[in-house]
C-alpha cells in the first residue's frame, strides 16, 4: 500500500515504539530527558535513557530495567536499534494532518493519556532538532531531544496500548496458523500438464509510456502500456496502492505481455509516491476515493479512441474483456469499478469507535473517505469484467451490504502477516461479502508488500519496525506463482478457459509453497473462520475494541485447541494396539446361519467334532 511509508515512519506505531539505528550516547546541547518515570497509581518505577541505550546496543538489562524484562524482547531491542528515516516535508504534513483533523484526535488523546506532560508540538520540535544528529532519528536521540529532564508516563495507559498491540499481533498469528492448517489439501491429485503458465511466454513484451490529460478534472494520468506484436488475450489494468506507482507490479505486467495480453499500468496522480512526498495537505485526500475510479474510466475512454483511430495500437486493445488488478488502495478502486457501493454512514460509525493500538493503519486510512462527497451516479464501469485484489483496502468502506453488488469473478490474494491492512477486517471479511464467483490465495506469513516488484520498492521500507518485510529471495517463488495463477485467471475470459482451469487449484499453489511462505488456494473460507468472522462482527457492536480483541482471540484459540485435541485423539487411536474397528469386530455377536467357509475349515479329529444334533433340533452356530 505504501511504497515510501518508510519516509514518514509507520504512524501506527509512532506513538509507541520509535525505531532507531545506531544509538546515540551523547546528549544534545539542550535540555534532554534523562529519567523516565512510569507510574502505576501510587507506585512509580524509574528508568534512565542510558539504560535503554545500553540495552539497545548490548542486550544487557540493568537492575532498573529488570522489572521490564518480560517485554524487553529481541524484537524491542531491534526496534531501538533502527533508524527512523523521515522526510522533513512529509513529517510536517503527517503531524499537521494528525494534529489538526478530527481523525487524529484519538492519537492526541492517547498521547495525553500515556504522557500527560508531552504534547504533539513537543514531539514535532524534537524531531526537527534531532534530524541533523549524526546518529539520525532513533528512540534514544528523540528522547534526548525532548524538553525537560524527566518524562512521566502513565503505566496503566501504556500497558493498555501495549496489550492492544499484543492482542492484534496474537490474533493475526493464530489466524495465520488456522488458515495454514485448514486450507491445506491432503492427498490431492498431483497436477500434470504440459503447460507452464509461470514461465515466460513466447512473445517479447514492449513498453510504451504515455500520459493523458483530463481537462475536465485538471489531472494528468501517466500510463505504461505493455504489449506484443500478437495480441491473443484480454486486456489487463493495474491499479497501485497509496504511495506507490505504476511500476509496483512491473514483473507481472511484463509476464502477461509475453503471452500476448495488453497490460495498462496507470498511475494515480493524487495518491502516488510523488503526491505522498511533495503535495500539501492530508496524506490521503478524501477526493482520491472518487478520483481513482474515475482515473481508470478516463484511461479506458482514451484507449478506446486509440483502438479505433490509432494505426500503432489498432487490434492490440481488447476493450470487451478487462481484468483489473488492484493492490491495497487499488483493491478498493477495483471494487468500486465493479459495482461496490460505499456506505458513508457505516464508515462514519466505524471510524468513531477506532482506538489507537486496536486498529490497523488501513482502518485509519479508510476514514479519510468520511469527508468525501460521493456523486449520486455510480462510479462502476461495465468494461471491467474480472478482478484480482491483492491485499485490498476495503474494511468498512462498503458497510455490510455494499459488496453484495460485486458479482464479477474475483481472485483475492491475502497475506496473513499484513501490517498495513488487517487480514480479518480489510481482506477476509470483504471476501465473504462478494456475491460473484470468488477464489482466495492465502500467503501464510506474507506481508503487505510481498507481492510487489522488489526492484521497485523502497529498500528502507523493509526496515520499518513492527512491519517486517521478507527479503527478495524469500518472495521469489511467490512472484513466480503469481505470474502463473494471475495469467490463468485472466485466461478464464477466453476459449482456453478450461485449459487453464487446473492452475486455479490448491495443487498448483502447493508447487510453489516454501517453508518461509506457504501458499494456500481455496474457493471458500473454512467454516470455523466464517463463524469467527460472524461472531467478531457481533462483538464489535457490543464491546469496546479491547474487549472485542480479547473475545476474538479466545475464539480463535478455541478453534486451535479443538484441532489440537482432534489431532491428539487421531494420533492416539493410530498408535493403539487394537483399533476401534477391530475391537468392534471382536465383541460383536456373530450372525446366525451356516458359514460355508467356516465349515470347510472345521477340524477333522473326532475329539474335536461337535456332537450331532438330533434331526428335529434346529441347527445353530455360536
Structure report:
- With 622 residues, this protein is α/β, with parallel strands linked by helices.
- It has two domains: 5-148, no CATH class; 205-516, 3-Layer(aba) Sandwich (Rossmann fold).
- It contains 22 helices and twelve strands.
- It has helices at residues 5-8, 49-58, 74-81, 88-100, 105-114, 120-130, 139-145, 155-182, 250-257, 273-278, 288-309, 329-337, 344-352, 361-365, 423-433, 472-490, 497-500, 506-510, 527-542, 545-575, 580-587, 596-600, and strands at residues 35-40, 43-48, 150-154, 206-214, 219-227, 235-239, 262-266, 322-327, 384-390, 410-415, 438-443, 519-522.
- The strands form two sheets. The chain has a nine-stranded mixed beta sheet, sandwiched between helices.
- Strand 10, helix 15 (423-433) and strand 11 (438-443) form a beta-alpha-beta unit.
- Helix 6 (120-130) packs across helix 7 (139-145) and helix 19 (527-542) runs antiparallel to helix 20 (545-575).
- The radius of gyration is 30 Å and the shape is globular.
- It starts with a helix and ends in a 22-residue tail after the last helix.
Characteristic key phrases:
622 residues; alpha/beta; Rossmann fold; 2 domains; 9-stranded mixed β-sheet; 22 helices; disordered N terminus; disordered C terminus
Lay out the secondary structure.
Blueprint: H1 5-8, E1 35-40, E2 43-48, H2 49-58, H3 74-81, H4 88-100, H5 105-114, H6 120-130, H7 139-145, E3 150-154, H8 155-182, E4 206-214, E5 219-227, E6 235-239, H9 250-257, E7 262-266, H10 273-278, H11 288-309, E8 322-327, H12 329-337, H13 344-352, H14 361-365, E9 384-390, E10 410-415, H15 423-433, E11 438-443, H16 472-490, H17 497-500, H18 506-510, E12 519-522, H19 527-542, H20 545-575, H21 580-587, H22 596-600
Parallel strand pairs: 1-3, 6-7, 6-8, 8-9, 9-10, 10-11
Antiparallel strand pairs: 1-2, 4-5, 5-7, 11-12
